[in-house]
Amino acid sequence: MTARKLSISVSPEVEETIKAAAAEEGKPVSVWLAEAAVEKAQIALLHAQGRATARELVAEYESEHGTLPEESRQRARQFLMETGLLDDEPWSAVG
């Protein structure tokens, strides 16, 4: 695999945090940052898939039983927020 150079700007505090974490794991900063970026991207993908699945389940329920009551919709939203699958973003069955 060919490595490509990437330049980033961070605050001094973030720089120290990154360097300390990389040193703790015995890795060069560039390797540590690359791994962190990949992990973040994988988590974002899993969250997106979880949100899509939740929307599909709600749509399936609504196609069989009619509109999901608002109280149930709010409980589902709260559950998704608590599990980290949903940030504080608007959410609907169609969205």
Describe it for me?
The chain is mainly α and 95 residues long. Helix content is 66%, strand content 0%. It has 3 helices and no strands. The radius of gyration is 20 Å and the shape is elongated.
What are the salient characteristics of this protein?
disordered C terminus; 95 residues; mainly alpha
Number of helices: 3
Low-confidence stretches: 91-95
Distance between the termini: 38 Å
Mean pLDDT: 87
Q: Rg, please?
A: 20 Å
**Into which percent range does the helicity of residues fall?**
55-70%
Helix and strand content put the structural class at mainly alpha
Q: What is the β-strand count?
A: 0
What's the assembly state of these chains? single chain
Strand content: under 5%
Q: Which sheet architecture does the biggest sheet show?
A: none
The helix/strand series, from N terminus to C terminus, equals HHH
Shape type: elongated
Give a summary of the structure in a few sentences:
The chain has 95 residues and is an all-alpha fold. The protein has three helices and no strands. Helix 1 (12-24) crosses helix 2.
Q: What is the fold's blueprint, element by element?
A:
Elements lengths: L11 H13 L4 H37 L4 H13 L13
